[in-house]
Amino acid sequence: MATREASHAGSWYEDDAEELSSQLDEFLDRVPATLDDSHLPIPGARVIIAPHAGYSYSGPCAAWAYKALDLRSAKRVFILGPSHTYYLRGCALTTFDKYETPFGDLVVDKATTSELRRTGKFSDMPTRREVDEHSLEMHIPYLWKRLEQTFGNDSSAYPPIVPILVGSASEQEEKSFGQLLSQYLKDPETAWIVSSDFCHWGSRFSYRPEYHEGVIWDLDKPRTQGTKHEVLPVTPDWSEAATDPEDPQIHEVIKVLDQMAMDAVESGAHSQFYKVVKETHNTVCGRHPIGVMMAALESVAKEGPEEGKCKFNFVQYQRSNLVKTRWDFSVSYASAYAVL
């Protein structure tokens, strides 16, 4: 049986099982025992958004989503992540049988991947590209830890996983994939992990919006008319968003842009999120996995869920660095859950 190696173990996270377990326990222990007036895990919180950077950067933020995740009825776990290693249009499925972690291997749900493959809507991930990809792998050890906490030490009782890469897609394509996956979303024994970091700010990401002369504009996106900067259509209330409303710092601009994206996600309207990301050009690397998941949630919501269900609720937001100069850089991390 083909097993995808834990290629980022020993660099992006600990490769020693005992040390990794201790680190994840520490992150999870920092999260309060209750969130939104509910003890954790939150009953019915079968869907989360969590970051995928190295654990020393995003691990503490991801813990908020994972501690909220309700796996008690899970018999299958979908993991949706963006492609960083090759250009992908649409969605792609794993061809591996297992995913390795320092704790042990999680089994791929071959029955579900085969069923999805038969729709003709999915391609296969190239083997080498999948091994190089981190957006899926970074969630496997965290998932193992939470499965261990939920089901005990017998890994044979752990539900199988369905890893899916979500590449570039139009608004309608995201909606189409969301509708396709919504049939699985309705299954109360299926849980979902959506992998995404938020704003990537810096010249290395070709994205450096900052505030100047009453507007936010991006240093790295010249306009076709020959002007120096591309103006982003954002006019926030700086009296609340910035320490100095007359001169907001770059990290405050980043927070405003991320907040716009998170507010759009929490709205539950897939079209609103797509519109905000398109207008602000925010470098949310998992915008397409989030879009597909929102479209699936929206499809299920049309059947009339209870108040407060089928919508994401953000519980944590962090940045790798508080940017103050245009030569600096940072990546934003956010965690959210949705109850079904």
Structural features, described:
InterPro entries: MEMO1_fam. Belongs to the MEMO1 family. The structure is a single chain. The chain is built from ten helices and 17 strands. Strands 4, 5, 6, 9, 10, 11, 12, 16 and 17 form a nine-stranded mixed β-sheet that branches. Strands 1-7-8 form a three-stranded mixed β-sheet, with no helix packed on it. The chain has helices at residues 17-30, 55-68, 110-117, 127-132, 140-151, 171-185, 238-241, 250-267, 270-280, 287-301, and strands spanning 3-4, 34-35, 38-39, 45-50, 76-82, 91-93, 98-100, 105-107, 122-124, 161-166, 190-195, 200-201, 209-212, 215-218, 230-232, 312-319, 330-339. The mean pLDDT is 94. It has a single domain (3-203, 285-339), classed as LigB-like (Protocatechuate 4,5-dioxygenase, Chain B, 3-Layer(aba) Sandwich). With 340 residues, the protein is an alpha/beta fold. The protein starts with a strand and ends with a strand.
How are the secondary structure elements laid out?
Elements (H helix, E strand, L loop, with lengths): L2 E2 L12 H14 L3 E2 L2 E2 L5 E6 L4 H14 L7 E7 L8 E3 L4 E3 L4 E3 L2 H8 L4 E3 L2 H6 L7 H12 L9 E6 L4 H15 L4 E6 L4 E2 L7 E4 L2 E4 L11 E3 L5 H4 L8 H18 L2 H11 L6 H15 L10 E8 L10 E10 L1
Parallel strand pairs: 1-7, 4-11, 5-10, 5-11, 6-9
Antiparallel strand pairs: 2-3, 4-17, 6-10, 7-8, 12-17, 13-14, 14-15, 16-17
Helix pairs in contact: 1-2, 6-10, 8-9, 9-10
